[in-house]
Amino acid sequence: MRDKEINSGNRVRKKNGFDAVYEEYHKMVFRIAYHYTCNREEAEDISQVVFGRYYIFSETGRVTNVRSWLATTARNVAVNHVKHISYERLLWAKETMEDYLGYEEDPEEQFFGTLREKDEIECACRILAALKTKKRKWYNLAVYAYCNEMPRQEIADRMGMSLDAVMSTLTRIKDWIRKNYKDEFDHINT
Predict the structure, then answer these.
(1) Which terminus of the chain has fewer CB atoms gathered within 10 Å of its CB, N or C?
(2) Where is each RNA polymerase sigma-70 region domain found (predicted)?
């Protein structure tokens, strides 16, 4: 790290390492954080987090491009902070509206909702058991796609199939389920 000379009164002292980096890039990190938060206090807090991470990382690792590392870290911390704050605000707004409106789910609705969920789970278990006996490959595809919510390309790679083959097989599985379990689904959803 290059040394930086600081003129303080009659004496000249050298700043090096972390102090020099902080002095040179603090304004840049603060501007990036402020761009995302539009709040001086939050931007300052984010700046402190970024430089805290830099201090720890520079002790254990090697930063080749300090400016880029700080800018990227500032952006990531600020974006995560804004997401977290937005989520908290949504939760607060929901709780406030429920308090204001006096909304609580009706016990009867809760009871029938629980029954409906139980029926849906039992139906899904029967479908998966039927798929397992019909074609093991269909069962694996259905579990990967619908239970694990795995991306289609990852399923294709894992099963050694092309993406088109995965998509067409999933369509056949859906058609088979509709044909064999339509009445049961209609009963659950009424």
Answers:
(1) C
(2) 22-83
pLDDT in tens, 72-108: 999 999 988 888 877 666 666 666 655 655 556 667 7
Pairwise CA distance, residues 173 & 148, whole Å? 16
Q: CATH code for 4-100?
A: 1.10.1740.10
Q: Which residue has the tokens 């000249």?
A: 12
Mean pLDDT for all residues in the chain = 80
Domain spanning 107-188: CATH 1.20.120: no
- What tens digit of pLDDT does each residue of 139-160 get? 888 888 887 788 899 889 989 9
What DSSP letter does each residue of 140-186 carry, written as one string? HHHIIIIIS---HHHHHHHHT--HHHHHHHHHHHHHHHHHHHHHHHH
- Please, are residues 123 and 180 in contact by the beta-carbon 8 Å criterion? no
Q: Ramachandran region of residue 8, left (φ > 0), alpha (ψ -120 to 50) or beta?
A: beta
Q: Is the pLDDT of residue 43 over 50?
A: yes
In the chain, which residues fall in CATH 1.10.1740.10?
4-100
